[in-house]
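#lab-general

N.A. 3:47 PM
ok so I finally got the sequence cleaned up, no stray characters, all 173 residues accounted for. can someone with queue access submit it? mine expired

B.Y. 3:52 PM
send it over

N.A. 3:53 PM
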Amino acid sequence: MTWRLPRDPQVAAQTTAVPLGGDVAVPVNGLMIFGPTEAAQMGYRDPYLDGLLDSCNGHTAPGGMYHFHAKPDCILTQLGAGRVVAYALDGFPVIALETLPASSWQRVPEQWNGDQPLYNNTDEGSWDIYEYVEGSGDLDECNGKMLDDGGYAYFLTETFPYYVGCYRGTPNL
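B.Y. 4:20 PM
back already:
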């Protein structure tokens, strides 16, 4: 696979939503990072929350493509903390700190439709069971922040959206 990422990413005037399915970033090991949702046939549910991931927080898609959805524990074991672990499709880095920052996305109270969680049957799945609450964590709605040097970076978090909540730059989709 070939990815073309901006060398000098710039903060865009408006954010861009990450796709409900498919790749959102490329980790340094060359595998893929998908967004925080499972495939459409699974109702765009959160695969981490639903226990669908292996010990590296990834799994294979139909056709055999292995990809991560949540914190890539196997990569972190090799690289250590304080490193760039991936690049989002807009070119900005995804950084894993020694102590992971807190996401500002918060879980909303569970709603049920009979014996099924309501988000199993919504258009956006896991995006419907979380909401961005400004100031409730360390990061903005895209799961990143401006750096002291004037650049921007996304940060790996233990909780939703794990990597990238939206694109702060212009993604190469």
